[in-house]
Amino acid sequence: MPLDLSNTLVVGISATALFDMAESDQIFRKTFESDPDTAIEKYREFMLAHEDEPLKPGTGYPLNQSFTWP
After folding, report:
1. pLDDT value at position 28?
2. What is the pTM of this model?
């Protein structure tokens, strides 16, 4: 039986709002300007090289913290 959400506010928050991903975004955008064919690969390499570093909170983080989860 599907979950009835008709009386529930559902909020979606993107990862880029939840976390500060400005550095990785800048790498992607700079690479895309000069060489669009490698932009995704450079972004992926950056993310893998930093995968063990916790992301800093972004602009949407306080909103997420304000919710009471069941």
Report:
1. 95
2. 0.67
